[in-house]
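EI: anyone free to look at a 90-residue chain?
SC: sure, send it
EI:
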Amino acid sequence: MNQDTEESLLRDRVATLAQAIRDKDLDALMTHYAPDVIVYDLMPPLDVKCATDYRQNFERWFASMQGPIDYEMNDLRVSMSESHAFCHFL
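SC: here you go
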């Protein structure tokens, strides 16, 4: 697979994460996180050390929002090598 194809797949994966947030689809959303993920988030607890605990952050957030969530990712940038990939966006 060439780098353009890999980057396109990664961009598609990020788009599915955003759609899962818009849809408040916890099961689809959590497929984006490894079981041993470490996350630094905006909502307490600020540091979360596993996907199970991070899911609880999303559950609280989704429950606090009435109706759909308008969630956008702007200026997505992808940096890739053979061993890793990073994405960041506004």
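EI: The chain has one domain: 3-88.
SC: 👍
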